[in-house]
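Friendly challenge for the regulars: who can give me the structure tokens for this chain first? No prize, just bragging rights.
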Amino acid sequence: MSKIAVIYWSGTGNTAAMAEAVLEGAKEAGADAALFEVESFHVEDMPGYDGFLFGCPAMGDEVLEEGTFEPFFAEAEKRVKDVPVALFGSYGWGGGAWMTAWVERTKTAGAKLFGDGLIIENTPTEDGLADCKKLGTDFVKSL
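First reply, four minutes later:
Bragging rights claimed.
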């Protein structure tokens, strides 16, 4: 059984809802999966996991949230070489440039990136939540 961490930051609750659906899919696929708000997960704990699903919405000028998530991810990306990773998040403007940059950054860090990052505009619909659940399921099945 794979041990998976779903780690996210959410300002409005949209990315939190996505994270919960991702977690549900990962668990249904048979993973020992846990959900963490970014403040409650420490990069020192990363070696205990087989893969990571990171979630963060677009902020400001389409960047990762800078107060908490960006500093966390700057440390985490040093530990993802050859590790399975998937990315997800919500946005309210723009066209997803933050995710494109995040995907490239994660690839450059050497992660085994799953997919191209799942993005949902504003509040996830039922279909959007189903896509999140599928991300969790498919990610676990890919391990």
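The longest helix spans residues 126-142. The helical segments are 14-28, 69-76, 97-108, 126-142. Your move, everyone else.
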